[in-house]
């Protein structure tokens, strides 16, 4: 099984019969419509391309409109691709959240919330320097970033201030708490990356 595209609705909690509170993230997974099937003969690999949701007609470009028309599906809010192995899919087919009915754990990929330009204390959990004892300017600065004339440079990957967040993040092995096929909802235990309303890619866990 490949995976599905959903939308983050938010977090809540549900209670077990014993009264234990479980924090869950609600993911809305509307039917994913297959827009293209890729195969070894023509594309060199096996995959399906899907879309979900809807997009205003005046927002759909001509190439997109032709692509959706060829597949015979309504224009969605984007296109995503999932690798397949042996499964049979056809263009125009709808895939619902029910495919996760027998799945116990999933990997969820999204775009983390952007925090803008952040210093080293917030971005990399650096310790702050002394608040007093003669320190008047360097409370939250990183300190030295180099060594000496040798090597005479700052190494690549050096942890410094810069853009924090707004990057692709995957959280692995989240427990599937409930699958609500009637309302197209998937409830997973714990938090997932991204803001409310952002797109998520949900796949069966690779480490399950």
Automatic annotation (TrEMBL):
Q: Does the keyword Ribonucleoprotein apply?
A: yes
Recorded coiled-coil stretches: none
**Per the record, GO CC terms?**
ribosome
PROSITE patterns named among the record's database cross-references: RIBOSOMAL_L3
Record PTM N5-methylglutamine, positions in chain: 149
| Taxonomic superkingdom | Bacteria
Tell me the segments the record calls region Disordered: 132-152
Pfam assignment, any one: Ribosomal_L3
Q: Which SUPFAM superfamilies match?
A: Translation proteins (SSF50447)
Q: How would you describe the post-translational modification of this protein?
A: Methylated by PrmB.
Keywords for this protein: Methylation, Ribonucleoprotein, Ribosomal protein, RNA-binding, rRNA-binding
User: Quaternary structure?
Assistant: Part of the 50S ribosomal subunit. Forms a cluster with proteins L14 and L19.
State the family it belongs to.
Answer: Belongs to the universal ribosomal protein uL3 family.
Role according to the record: One of the primary rRNA binding proteins, it binds directly near the 3'-end of the 23S rRNA, where it nucleates assembly of the 50S subunit.
Q: What is this protein called?
A: Large ribosomal subunit protein uL3
Organism encoding this protein: Pantoea eucrina
Gene transcribed to yield this protein: rplC
């Amino acid at each position: 099984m490949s995976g599905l595209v959903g939308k983050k609705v938010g977090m809540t909690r549900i209670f077990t019969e014993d009264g234990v509170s479980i924090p869950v993230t609600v993911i809305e997974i509307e039917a994913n419509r297959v827009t293209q099937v890729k195969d070894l003969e023509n594309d060199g690999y096996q995959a399906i391309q899907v879309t979900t949701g809807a997009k205003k007609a005046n927002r759909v470009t001509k190439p997109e409109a032709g692509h959706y028309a060829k597949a015979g599906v309504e224009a969605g809010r984007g296109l995503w691709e999932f690798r397949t192995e042996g499964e049979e899919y056809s263009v125009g087919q709808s895939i619902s959240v029910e495919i996760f009915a027998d799945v116990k754990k999933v990997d969820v990929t999204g775009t983390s919330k952007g925090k803008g330009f952040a210093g080293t204390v917030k971005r990399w959990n650096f310790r702050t320097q002394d608040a007093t004892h003669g320190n008047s300017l360097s409370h939250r600065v990183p300190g030295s970033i180099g060594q000496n004339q040798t090597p005479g440079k700052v190494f690549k990957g050096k942890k410094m201030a810069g853009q924090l967040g707004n990057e692709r993040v995957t959280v692995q092995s989240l427990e599937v708490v409930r699958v609500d096929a009637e309302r197209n909802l998937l409830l997973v235990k714990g938090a997932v990356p991204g803001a409310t309303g952002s797109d998520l890619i949900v796949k069966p866990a690779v480490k399950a």
